[in-house]
Amino acid sequence: MFAALQEAENALENNEVPVGAVVVKENKIIGRGYNQVEKLKDATAHAEMIALTAAANNIGDWRLDKCSLFVTLEPCIMCTGALLAARIKTLYFAAHDSKFGACGSVYNLAENGKTNHKVKIYSGIYNEESKKLLNLFFTDLRNQQPS
Q1: Start-end of H helices in the chain
Q2: What predicted TM-score, i.e. pTM, was given to this entire model?
């Protein structure tokens, strides 16, 4: 999870919502990503999506069934769909997302049993550190807006 936090710091340094993700297979990071929505002008450029693509490219297969994803914020509906499609085995995330979270907060698509694949979920790892980065980003953003 520490590596995912480092990716989130990269996002923060690039004026992106500070979310980072890494895909791990056999205790080795095979994919990294951080939010790049603003940079790429792409609503799908979430940390998870970039990390999944990097991992698939690394191993030459879209099936990531022997992999885990570590991410600093609970995945949204789009990213949870990608986790299910990629057959991610285990998800570890730091902070819950009460507005868009699809792994327990608003929805629980990863474990609801309505798809042919389920993702095992663990949450709260480096929760405070992740929240601190998010709060820093959104506080700075609010301070930049004219009154």
Answers
A1: 2-13, 37-40, 47-59, 77-86, 127-144
A2: 0.94
> Assign residue 63 a region: left if phi > 0, alpha if psi is -120 to 50, beta otherwise?
beta
Please name which of 127, 142, 141, 122 lies closest in space to residue 8, comparing C-alpha atoms. 127
Distance CA 77, CA 55 (A): 20
Check 13, 16, 38, 48 and give the catalytic one: 48
CB 12 within 8 A of CB 136: yes
Spatial contact of 5 and 32, defined as CB atoms under 8 Å apart: no
Does 9 qualify as catalytic in the annotation?
no
Residue pLDDT, tens place only, 91-104:
999 999 999 999 99
Buried/exposed 104-113: b ≥16 CB within 10 Å, e otherwise: bebeebbeee
The model's pLDDT over 47-70, given as tens digits with 9 standing for 90+, comes to 999 999 999 999 999 999 999 999
Decide if pLDDT at 3 tops 90. yes
